[in-house]
Specification:
By secondary structure, the protein is of the alpha/beta class. It has two domains: 145 residues, Cytidine Deaminase, domain 2 (3-Layer(aba) Sandwich), CATH 3.40.140; 198 residues, Dihydrofolate Reductase, subunit A (3-Layer(aba) Sandwich), CATH 3.40.430.10. 27% of the residues lie in helices and 25% in strands. It has ten helices and 19 strands. The strands form four sheets. It has a ten-stranded mixed β-sheet with strand order 11-12-10-9-8-15-6-16-19-18, with helices on both faces. A hairpin with a 2-residue loop joins strand 13 and strand 14. The longest helix is centred in the first third of the chain and has 23 residues. The model has no long low-confidence stretch (mean pLDDT 94). It binds ligand AOF and zinc ion (ZN).
Length: 355
């Protein structure tokens, strides 16, 4: 009887945690470098009496957002996808507010990886006599905050890469024609994906060949010899732009030039990736041709691969990943499958690096 009751409670917490994750997603694109967090508060009858989420960097945390809407939270249960914070940052500790408001039970999704919190939030709550339950739905909570986790654990920028190919893995014909391989449906999804990342990154070859606008607040171009034209190319029309190049450092209105070391006639990608992190760019979406995609592969955490129901033959077309030829299947780069979404007639497969 008791274990049946516990099971029902657990199912209820999983459902509420999913709701927290959905609420948290409203902050996509606005909370970086902070995590995506959602919160639900229940009264002692199990009814939802408040919800909240972290909407914008520097503003209230999810727990504060939910609790400040309530006059009385005594005896209530608070569900949140991340351990409540215990530190004075842009706002006072959420754990203190939870205690002050008389919350009886806290259900959390994952421990905070920020070393300023890392278990201290949970301890503070327990020390105050609050029942702490979790982690609940930990894998989903970690997936939601994969950027935040990479930033704190590895002290590195999260790198995602998007490519759109024919069934035989081609991104353009041999003479570079690529408009369009995927449908408007798929391309609308690409715009949504871009908005999830702090910056998008491409190469001078893509800028010169396709002259894309790539609408985004922050764009990065790898342009070793400064071949792109700041007056002519659409990418320079808006946003903040970082140009990694071999020739100069400097600033010109919205453009920042970063002189970058070169190896094998190519800009050093590890320098670029480190510089992104030290410039406060916590996540980046690479959208380029096969050569740059190939160079970035060792750094890629997540791959968005759109496939259109089109075929080019073996000897025509450019592949999505350039690089050295690999002789054995056992030497190839292995990815871990995450999920598939349909944007008819195209398919989006999402993979993560498995290591
Ligand atoms: C958030 N939103 O809902 C929660 C966070 O920059 P600060 O001072 O607001 O503090 C950010 C840290 O607070 C963040 O790294 C994480 O450890 C913790 N929790 N942050 O931005 C939230 N719950
Ligand atoms: Zn907090």
């Amino acid at each position: 009887m008791i274990s049946y009751k516990i099971q029902i409670m657990e199912q209820q917490y999983v459902k509420l945690m999913k709701q927290c994750i959905e609420l948290a997603k409203s902050g996509f694109g606005s909370v970086s470098p902070n995590p995506l967090v959602g919160c639900v508060v229940l009264n002692s009858n199990g009814e939802i009496i408040s919800t909240g989420y972290h909407a914008k960097y520097g503003e209230n945390h999810a727990e504060r957002d939910a609790l400040l809407k309530l006059d009385d939270a005594r005896g209530c249960t608070l569900v949140v996808n991340l351990e409540p914070c215990s530190h004075y940052g842009k706002t006072p500790p959420c754990a203190d507010l939870i205690i002050e408001k008389g919350i009886k039970t806290v259900v959390y999704g994952m421990r905070d990886v920020n070393s300023l919190v890392a278990g201290n939030g949970l301890k503070k709550l327990q020390d105050a006599g609050i029942e702490v339950i979790g982690p609940v739905l930990e894998d989903e909570c970690k997936k939601l905050n994969e950027v935040f986790i990479k930033n704190h654990v590895k002290k590195q920028t999260f790198v995602a890469l998007k490519t759109a190919t024919t069934i035989d893995g081609k991104i353009a014909t041999s003479n570079g024609d690529s408009k369009w391989i995927t449908s408007e449906n798929a391309r609308a999804k690409v715009r949504e994906i871009r908005a999830m990342y702090d910056a998008i990154l491409t190469s001078s070859s893509t800028v010169i060949a396709d002259n894309p606008t790539m609408e985004h607040k922050c764009k990065i171009i790898l342009d070793r010899e400064l071949k792109t034209d700041t007056n002519h190319h659409n990418i320079y029309k808006n946003g903040k732009i970082f140009v990694f190049n071999a020739l100069k450092d400097g600033k010109d209105n919205n453009i920042i030039y970063i002189k970058t070391p070169v190896t094998d006639n190519k800009l050093k990608i590890d320098f670029v990736v480190e510089k992104l992190y030290s410039s406060g760019i916590m996540s980046v979406l690479v959208e380029a041709g096969g050569i740059l995609n190939g160079s970035f592969l060792p750094y890629v955490d997540k791959l968005y691969h759109f496939t259109a129901p089109k075929i080019l033959s073996d000897n025509s077309g450019k592949s999505c990943f350039g690089g050295k030829s690999i002789e054995k299947i056992s030497d190839c780069i292995n990815l871990e499958y995450e999920k598939t979404e349909l944007y008819p007639p195209d398919i989006l497969n999402i993979y993560n690096k498995s290591f």
